[in-house]
């Protein structure tokens, strides 16, 4: 999915891994440059999402191990330690707190996962 704030003309795509490297209905972390990025595969819907791996609440690199689901149809990830919940489409904090996460577009091509930065 592509965040509404990203200009598609300026995206550079990076190969993250094979689709088989990611658990169905779960997440895994990849490193692109200096960024740790959490990638999630919602197997039921076939959708893929990516966001920063660092939870902005306590600054820990743990979102890839977060619990995924939806809130009123909005795909979300919950920090496994603190249960802060974020939209995987917009990065908005769904608990109403001020901090948010960065989200990145994901593309699947020839069984490979690509992240747009």
TrEMBL record:
Residues 13-115 form the Rieske domain. Keywords: 2Fe-2S, Heme, Iron, Iron-sulfur, Metal-binding, Nitrate assimilation, Oxidoreductase. GO terms for biological process: nitrate assimilation. PROSITE patterns: NIRD, RIESKE. Signal peptide: none annotated. GO terms for molecular function: 2 iron, 2 sulfur cluster binding; metal ion binding; nitrite reductase [NAD(P)H] activity. This is Nitrite reductase small subunit NirD. The gene is nirD.
């Amino acid at each position: 999915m592509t965040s509404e704030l990203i200009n598609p003309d300026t995206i550079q795509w990076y190969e993250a891994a094979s689709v088989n490297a990611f658990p169905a209905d779960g997440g895994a972390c990849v490193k692109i440059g200096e960024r740790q990025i959490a990638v999630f595969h919602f197997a039921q819907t076939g959708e893929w999402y990516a966001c920063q791996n660092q939870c902005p609440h306590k600054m820990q690199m743990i979102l890839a191990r977060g619990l995924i689901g939806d809130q009123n149809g909005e795909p979300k990830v919950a920090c496994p330690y603190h249960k802060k919940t974020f939209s995987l489409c917009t990065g908005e904090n769904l608990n109403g707190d001020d901090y948010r996460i960065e989200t990145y577009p994901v593309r699947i091509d020839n069984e490979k996962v690509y992240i747009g930065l």
